[in-house]
Amino acid sequence: MNTTYDNDCIAVNRNGSVGYAFYHGYKALYSYDCRKVKLHKKVSPYVSLFITNQIMQQKAKYEYGYKMGSVRLRKQKILLPVDSNAQIDYEYMEQYMKNVELKILTGYFQIMEEI
What does the alpha-carbon distance between residue 61 and residue 66 come to, in Å, rounded to a whole number? Predict the structure, then answer.
């Protein structure tokens, strides 16, 4: 069994475009030039997209001579919102990404109406 063939994972490039992250809700084969991040908790695709975006916020620090390896990725701090009980706020992340999606789609629909 190939353990790099998986779904609902975030792939983080560690070579080439270092620090770029992509969410794969579908089955994908992950190369050795990326690291597969599988969340411990089953979350919605919107939450995974939010976390993917947070990972990419730090890609600028990974330039030539400072590559992202497995050890650095494990130590990477990812800033996430918390609720009033200091627990990760998954509902906020999901709603935030749904709002982003709605804003983008509304813009597309406005453009289509003008055509």
Answer: 8
Beta bridge partners of 29: 5
Q: State residue 32's pLDDT score.
A: 84
> Tokens for 106?
């509304």
Domain ranges of the chain: 5-114
How close are the terminal C-alpha atoms of the chain, in Å? 50
pLDDT for position 76 = 85
Question: pLDDT tens digit string along 69-88?
Answer: 778 888 888 899 999 999 99
Q: What is the DSSP letter of 59?
A: G
Contact 58, 35 (CB under 8 A): no
This prediction's pTM: 0.83
CB-facing half-sphere around the CA of 10: CA atoms within 13 A: 24
For residue 53 the two structure tokens come to 């975006």
Place of tokens 């490039």: 13
